[in-house]
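Re: beginner question about structure tokens

> Can someone show what the tokenized structure looks like for a real chain? I only ever see the sequence side.

Sure, here's an example I had lying around. Input first:
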Amino acid sequence: MSAHLTTVAGVAVDTRHWIGGERVASTESFTDVSPIDGSTLGEISRGTATEAAAAVAAARAAFPGWAATPRAERARILHAIADGVEKRLEELAVVETTDNGALLRSHRRGVMPRVAHNFRFFADWLLTLDHEDFDTRGHSNHVSWDPAGPCVLITPWNAPLMLATWKVAPALAAGNTVILKPAEWTPLTASLLADIAAEAGLPAGVLNVVQGYGSEIGDALTSHPDVRRISFTGSVPTAKHISASAAANLTPLSLELGGKSPLLVFADADLDLAVDLAVEQYDNAGQVCLAATRILVEETIVEEFTRRFTERAARLQQGDPRDESTDIGPNIHPRQLEKIDGFVQRALAAGARAVIGGHRREGQYYAPTLLTDVAQDSEIVQEEVFGPVLTLQTFTTEEEAVRLANGTRFGLAATVATGDPERAERVTAQLVAGTVWVNCFFVRDLQAPFGGSRHSGVGREGGTWSFDFYCDIKNTVTAPKGWKDHG
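And the corresponding structure tokens:
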């Protein structure tokens, strides 16, 4: 086997970059480790400004040909990529689980099928993308979506391939070329995606994958004058750094950032449903940006809610994510585990009470935690933990519920549990959030806009909103035959 191949769960993965249709190694590497048991998965090529420049050059060279490719042909290739994902679904699932610790059953049944759907959806949407021509004093107006150019896509570790293809698919469908920079803690499935795309017939240089740590390669990508779009999912501090880097070239940004979302539970709600919604926030070991980590419960039902929640949470099985019976796997990295525990221990020292959890377990596992007796202005309520840690607060009026819900710097999502449709309409109208779920959670349609308000992000993607971002929108105005402007 090549020195640049590693075997993960029986699957061979190339550890080099993918640039201009070729595998490219770096002189330096970094170690990729599984959060499940701390085992080494491979030594990954560690990119620098050199690889960043090569990837942008390859994307720039490939752009004219890909942009000129007819929509139907671009769509055909995207469907072929989806076919490749489905063909290798089991391999992708086991590699992703080994690399990031999320549940194997979820990857098999939900996440990897969604990866294929990302490509199919945007391929089909491309073929219907149109705007009805309109008239201005006899002049016709025709709106078109022109490919923007090379796009830098920087993706997170909590759902590596799904969130990468959420960006890659519309960028490619729009006629752009892509430089994908996966998170350094979870680089493996991005490498497999490069193989799948090449096998599907995507021309060399249209998709490039570069690996590396933070600013070592990121600054060279986000400050490059030939980059026309930057899409980033991750933390607020990193987004600020990227924004500053992109500012010199006025490169348009799409930023999907942190969340501290609320779940509002009113006394008229179906209490069993509300409890299920609350326990669902432990999904992926709490490493979900959309998670409703702040549980706000009407005071008159808080005791019964807490009793049922505790009973329901006690049935969760935490352990190896490859086990079919496991509900909660490990957290991604020792550094993240330290961060989670730091938040919890500081909260407990400040007077919070752990209804459940509040401590580490062996390995990289953190016990599902619910903290009560927390102040609205406390760190644990205001800052994103990104682990299996929820807080519980009470309210007495609808107005107080909305005030608490909106009382952070974030605005990514919100969930409302109520049996009163009029109340649902009143409350959702007042919530600051990019997405609001009523009596449900995590229902997402790719044609809907997705993004955050306040410090949770800039811009929206999904459906036509994705093409609006990844394209230069042009309006062509044509005079009627024989028309003369006499001023």
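Each token stands for a local structural state, so reading them left to right follows the chain. The first helix runs from residue 49 to 68.
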